[in-house]
# Entry
Amino acid sequence: MTGDTHYDLEILAELAEDLLDAGTAQRVREHLAVCDPCGELLADLAAVREVLAATPTPAMPMGVALRVDKALAAEAESRRSGGLGLVETPDWDELMRDAPWERQAEPSRAEAQPEQPVRLGVVAEDGSVVPARRSSRRSAQRRRWAMPAIAAAAAVAVVGTAVTATSLLVAGGDDQSGAPTVALPVESSAASSAQEEPSRSPARALAYNVTNSDHNYSNHELRMPLEDLLGPAPAMQGTDPSGVDQVAKCVSAVSKRSGLEVFAVDQGQYNGQEALVVASWKQRAAQTVRVDVVDPFNCKNLRKPALGRW
Amino acid sequence: MNSPPETPSSAERPAVTDAELLTAHINGDPHAFSDIVKRHRDRMWAVALRTLGDPDEAADAVQDAFVSAYRKAATFRGEAAVTTWLHRIVVNACLDRMRRKSVRPVADDELIEAAERETPMPDQTLEREVSMEVSAALKLLPGDQRAALVLVDMMGYSVEDAAQVLQVPSGTVKSRCARGRAKLAPILSHLRNRSEANRVSSAKGAELRDG
# Structure
């Protein structure tokens, strides 16, 4: 309060916030009714609120957003290697980045793959097991994660298109001669009965094209124009509905993460692991696509989403 | 004006709630936390930028805050909205930063002088001018008043929501706002008078202008 007659800004601001006791508030109001200078101060206070409210609040600049993402990725990484207790699906791309086989092993694998007559990791009709083809160099890190992958496979039945007996994941085995350790046969009747009714194929109703090449993708290949890879693959049909649902679930998860429209999905493998390759239009006119490689069980990224060409 | 922190900044409410995402993060989903960040980073940025008044400082504070939230996720008890919790971490990161730089409260006449010193170049647009002036003025308030004014007057949160974020009683928020506004009034009235020809920001001003 300044002098006996006028009130200072703080009292007036407290009046506006209803913080004064009833008696004081009454006296200040009576004074305001007859005092122009104090009325002007009150208007100044109101103007403060208006000016503050009208001040624009800009969105986070891209550079800051990237910085935050990077810091969080580093945090996640240190947590993983520090073993601080979070059970996380490994980020293959992080784990395997700069690993020698990412580059050197690719050419031979890429060439060998298309000729392969039988699905990888499959129990053939005669009951024999065809081991998944794997790079002969295998990291200890990666083997560590084989068990959770098997557990996931047990929970979700994935049925192939051409082969009657179905799903198998192989763990361990440092090279192709290594004995497969686990086979998870899934009832084949579902597959064959579904095959007889291709008209029921739910894929036709989808906004995106689902194929089932069972191709074993490498990072190298995913950098090349994808239409050649995804385009010619047989359309998925007669597949177990749960498989289709699973694809739909992952498509929706990917689309939610990226905010882009998924237009093509291929069921295949990524470096020997079952994977869905999900393509979304980044810029359709420029034929640029975002490529997500996710595991078909939990829809988690097996590598960092990347830009590619169609 | 009164959008509570619980309201997502995007127009449509997402199918997965923040709490679900946080739980997924605690359970090891490596993407859940970045979804939370994407949802709220613009708000957090605005709070930090306005509270600290400096983009570099704000970037550091927001980064610290998100990393800290990432680490502390398991301690989130669900007694408040996730957004309230995030705001709290961001505001605390800002206040920490201010304290470390030992910003002292300044006297009123000092405030006015400083605001005049930092008066922006005249060739800038009025909006930017106002924005810079507001930033400069806010910077001269004590941290607790600044944080309260940013949340209530700038971000438009209710006093109750701001009280939750700041973990003080509503009355304390009101009194911090009142004291902060009282300090800003002489500075921003200078702004208001200066721009009166172009822009009238109060009924009283309109009265003055229209005779």
